[in-house]
Design brief:
about 375 residues; alpha/beta; Rossmann fold; 2 domains; 5-stranded parallel beta sheet; two-stranded antiparallel sheet; 18 helices; 9 strands; about 10% strand; elongated; binds adenosine-5'-diphosphate; binds magnesium ion; CbbQ/NirQ/NorQ/GpvN; ATP binding; ATPase_dyneun-rel_AAA; AAA+ ATPase domain-containing protein
């Protein structure tokens, strides 16, 4: 059994190991010091290159990728900002895999994130028996990334307490991390070439406004936008849903006409506009592309495991209550209004089926 069959979601460097190897072998471009690939090859890995058989993994403006990669080759970190579900985490994973060959030096930011989880902690048994020493030191992702010259990912950095965020200041500006408990040369870890930080932040959280001015200055900001074009989003949702369903043991692909209705519904409820561009209800729940993909997956699972066929528009309604309305009664009412008032104005069998299934919403 290969790793791909064993793990639910292997990191990008394992999922796309063959692509990375190939890109590395053919890579004639100059590489920034410490990088596994040139900028050109890293970009191809992320946005795809049909000619070389490299899959497109991130859909969006290739110039965003260029700017992001250039930032990382400078002495500033990269901060990806945007709405939830716009593939900020995916992008940081892909960039880290391309630039460093590993995307797993990752810090997950949260209210309870501590310095230990970012820099280092101690093996207490060894600490007690022999005192602080390089042996009793347990490096966390930041220290490892600095020592090995790799990209460190800091997810949802703005969820961390400010003083914890600021522990990035001297690693980013002086490129050194002090370990005061250790003496001499061991007490200073200097970053090797290739080290840098990619952080992500959601605009729905406390936000980047609260970040200290000092830390903001150490990052280049890049905004990741939701996919603007309907057909592009539909293609992405179809490709992702197909792959997820296959991995879940579903042998029929999702129906394109069902996905069309699903993507249109999510886009309208996300934007608060109807098919004619007029005003309609906007849900307060996040209706991102990432959510659309996960509903498309669930719809396919329902169809297959409940009835042995592809998912239908009725399956969409059955899945919507749990994803789009969650525990929010107002959103449930908005969703019902959408199904009752907007959906009947659309033409097509799947729209009719969506309307007919409105009674599947709870309440
Ligand atoms: N522009 C995009 N390119 C590729 N996948 C996208 C894009 N936007 C959304 N997705 C979907 O969303 C998933 C990633 O979401 P994630 O990285 O967790 O978002 P975020 O970190 O912004 O909340 C992808 O696996 C893919 O299914
Ligand atoms: Mg994320």
């Amino acid at each position: 059994m290969t790793t791909e069959e064993t793990f639910q979601r292997p990191p990008a460097e394992i999922r796309y190991a063959d692509e990375l190897t190939r890109l590395g072998e053919d890579d004639r471009g100059g590489r920034p010091p410490g990088w596994a690939l040139s900028l050109e090859a890293a970009r191809a890995f992320i946005v795809g290159d049909e000619r070389r058989g490299i899959r497109r993994k991130f859909v969006g403006d290739p110039s965003l990728i260029d700017r992001a990669l250039v930032s990382l080759a400078t002495s500033r970190g990269l901060l990806l900002v945007g709405e939830p579900g716009t593939a900020k985490s995916l992008l940081s994973e892909l960039i880290a895999a391309a630039v460093s060959g590993t995307s797993t030096l990752t810090i997950q930011g949260g209210a309870a994130t501590t310095d230990d989880q970012i820099k280092y902690s101690w093996n207490y048994a060894l600490l007690v028996s022999e005192g602080p020493s390089p042996r009793s030191l347990v490096p966390a992702p930041l220290l490892k990334g600095m020592a090995e010259g790799k990209i460190v990912r800091f997810e949802e950095i703005t969820r961390c307490p400010l003083e914890v965020q600021d522990s990035l200041l001297s690693p980013l500006s002086e490129r050194v991390l002090a370990i005061p408990e250790l003496n001499g040369a061991d007490g200073m870890v200097f970053a090797r070439q290739g080290f840098n930080v990619i952080a992500t932040a959601n605009t729905r959280d406390r936000g980047v406004n609260d970040m200290s001015a000092a830390l903001k200055r150490r990052f280049n900001f890049e905004t990741v936008f939701p996919i603007a074009d309907f057909a592009t989003e539909l293609d992405l949702v179809e490709a992702e849903a197909r792959a997820l369903l296959e991995a879940s043991g579903v042998t029929v692909p999702p129906r394109r006409d069902v996905l069309e209705v699903l993507v249109a519904t999510f886009r309208e409820l996300r934007a608060g506009t109807n098919a004619d561009g007029g005003p309609a209800d906007r849900l307060s729940t996040v209706m991102s592309t990432a959510e659309t993909v996960s509903v498309a997956h669930a719809v396919g699972l329902r169809g297959w495991f409940l009835r042995g066929e592809p998912g239908t528009a009725a399956d969409i309604v059955a899945c919507l209550a749990g994803t789009a309305a969650k525990d929010n009664a107002d959103d449930l009412a908005r969703l019902r209004r959408y199904l009752e008032q907007q959906v009947p104005r659309r033409r097509g069998d799947q729209w009719r089926a969506l309307h007919d299934a409105r009674h599947l919403l709870p309440g």
